[in-house]
Design brief:
heterodimer; A: Rossmann fold; seven-stranded mixed sheet; two-stranded antiparallel sheet; 10 helices; 37% helix; 18% strand; B: alpha/beta; Rossmann fold
């Protein structure tokens, strides 16, 4: 019997080696996006808009035309591309510092306009690239390099719930919060990401998936403990779920 | 012959952009340039283009960045505080070598200032308003017809050099009405498509990347030097200026934009009184026509630089003039605009008459 290829690297990823730390889940999220682009057959009409942060090199990893936006401005850059070329598939890939702090205005207004773009939002509750500072999504009590005594609501405010804010905008066609720390969750995340792209490709509106993600390096945990920590601490603060789904059941 | 039509400055700039093949406009309201986005909001749907009122100037310039990534002609306009907000994005565009036309209808500053005409963004425009080593091509119209002509040129230069081009106008240019002749419509399909670098989907080819970023300093230095070479080429080929009655002049007025226009009236009135005055008006503020100005001022009695700011172009004028003639300066600020008589009085005082 002839050998059959049943699993291979998605065509939508380049041969470039990931620059992420051991145990970081960015790599899984990248692969899921690439698998979805392959499955939908849109690689050749997709534009990747990378952020500033750990995933600043996304433009090298995705095998599509790509650009790097200024910090937080990816939804605005994606809007410009999409308005110029509505026939293209445009997505942003952003972390929580990029999207939930400096880029809050851009993400809310892109969602509210029902901009036909897709956003993959990686929430790992910390600034990774700059060395583990407090993110707007950092949990109360969580120690970071700028909250050495733990995040204190009185001084630092509260963990920000981006999906819950985006949910209130009427331009959203698909919105879900997922995690990718178990094989089952990875499969669920993949389905959500596919729908977030379908929301765009079907012309329904803005699609976003918030991906609860790990940062073992800056959390000070080994990779396995980080996966567990995510369930124990992040999920209670950021409940999983599909908040908006105008895409409906897949054929 | 093409028809002459009476239009307001901001609308003249907008229509000129449409005729240059611009089908993408992003903008945020700020006085005194609101009639331009308003005009484009009406005009873009008529020509199958896209107009978007954005959430901020920060978002605006990044949308312009995105649209420019596709190789299509795109424009935005704003006024001074708004242009300050755009500087990060302008730097990214220059770094990523993206063509676009930006319009700054300058108003009084600093800070909130006021909404009257000023020229106090000259430094920001010509010396690099954002971070890093870069230059904008800066065009300063003094009449509406010139504004119309410079908008066409701006799009061509942006495409030619893959660099943002700035139309530095002021509140007078924005608000006056004058008859102009518009150029013919350019079909967007006949414009440069930038197939060699634009983001259009990697169909049957290697992926394209548009970025100002590279983590490797060896590579980034090469990117920086490539920009330097480009700026040198622009400096050597794209300087533009107007010379008015300079042949027999003893006195040279240097002025740009609206003040350049007012100074023509000064030249006329001075000559009626027997004072031989001429005007040197830079049209490209960057690249600045240093060499030509240096040639012109040799042997002159006086150079009088007049501006609506604290003396910003004055630095470039002095760099050009060197020791070849004495340089005097007259300014109005805060949105005040001098009359020709006022400038003539200053001129006479400087000449000891």
């Amino acid at each position: 019997m002839a050998m059959q290829i049943i699993q291979k690297k998605p065509e939508s990823l380049t041969e470039k080696e990931f620059t992420y730390c051991p145990g970081c889940t960015h790599g899984i999220a990248h692969r899921l996006v690439a698998e979805v682009l392959d499955e939908l057959g849109v690689r050749e009409k997709t534009i990747t808009v990378g952020p500033v942060g750990c995933s600043v090199f996304a433009y090298q990893f995705f095998n599509t035309d790509a650009t790097v936006a200024a910090h937080g401005r990816a939804p605005a850059v994606a809007t410009g591309i999409k308005r110029a070329r509505p026939d293209l598939c445009v997505f942003t890939y952003q972390g929580d510092g990029d999207l939930a702090a400096i880029g809050t205005a851009e993400i809310i207004h892109a969602a509210n306009r029902g901009e036909k773009i897709t956003t993959i939002f990686i929430n790992n509750a910390i600034y990774g690239m700059t060395g583990g500072q407090m993110a707007p999504t950092t949990l109360l009590g969580m120690k970071t390099t700028t909250t050495p005594y733990g995040r204190n609501a009185n001084n630092d405010g509260y963990p920000i719930h981006v999906s819950e804010m985006v949910k209130e905008t009427k331009g959203v066609a698909f919105l879900a919060r997922v995690k990718i720390n178990t094989p089952q969750d990875v499969q669920k995340a993949r389905k959500a990401i596919k729908k977030a792209f379908l929301a765009q490709l079907k012309g329904l509106g803005f699609g976003m998936v918030e991906v609860l993600s790990t940062c073992p390096t800056n959390w000070g945990l080994d990779p396995a403990s980080a996966l567990k920590w995510l369930d124990e601490h992040m999920v209670p603060e950021y409940p999983l779920g599909v908040f908006v789904d105008k895409v409906g059941e897949e054929q | 012959m093409a028809e002459r039509v009476l239009v307001k400055g901001t609308e003249a700039i907008g229509e000129a952009a449409v005729r240059a093949g611009c089908r993408l406009f992003f903008g945020y309201p700020i006085t005194p340039q609101n009639e331009l986005p308003e005009y484009m909001s009406k005009r873009m749907p008529e020509v199958n283009g896209s107009f978007l009122q954005t959430e901020s100037e920060v978002a605006t310039i990044n949308m312009v960045y995105g649209a420019a990534c596709t190789g299509r002609r795109v424009m935005t306009s704003t006024s001074s505080p708004g242009f300050s907000l755009m500087q990060e994005g302008v730097s990214y565009m220059a770094g990523a070598q993206l063509p676009a036309v930006l319009v700054n209808v300058v108003r009084g500053g600093p800070g909130l200032g006021d909404i009257q005409p000023a020229q106090s963004d000259y430094w920001q425009a010509t010396k690099g308003g954002g971070h890093g080593d870069y230059k904008l091509i800066v065009l300063a119209p003094s009449t509406l017809q010139e504004a119309v002509d410079l908008v066409s040129l701006a799009f061509d230069l942006a495409d030619k050099y893959r660099n943002p081009v700035l139309i530095l106008a002021d509140g007078v240019i924005g608000q006056i009405m004058e008859p102009v002749t518009f150029p013919e419509f350019k079909d967007p399909n006949t414009l440069p498509k930038h197939d060699d670098w634009a983001l259009q989907g990697a169909i049957g080819r290697e992926k394209h990347v548009v970025t100002s970023f590279d983590i490797d300093p060896v590579v980034l230095e090469k990117m920086n030097l490539e920009l330097v070479e480009k700026f040198k080429k622009i400096e050597s080929t794209e300087k533009r200026w107007e010379e008015y009655k300079l042949d027999d002049a003893d006195v040279v007025i240097t002025a740009f934009g609206t003040i350049g226009r007012i100074s023509k009236s000064v030249v006329t009135r001075a000559r009626q009184e027997g004072i031989k005055v001429g005007l040197f008006r830079p049209i490209t503020l960057w690249p600045f026509p240093y060499k030509r100005l240096e040639e012109i001022v040799k042997g002159k009695k006086l150079v009088l630089d007049v501006e609506l700011n604290m003396g910003q172009m004055l630095e470039d004028v002095k760099l050009a003039v060197k020791d070849n003639a004495p340089v005097a300066f007259y300014k109005r600020m805060g949105g005040m605009v001098p009359t020709p008589e006022e400038i003539l009085d200053v001129l006479k005082m400087e000449l000891g008459r």
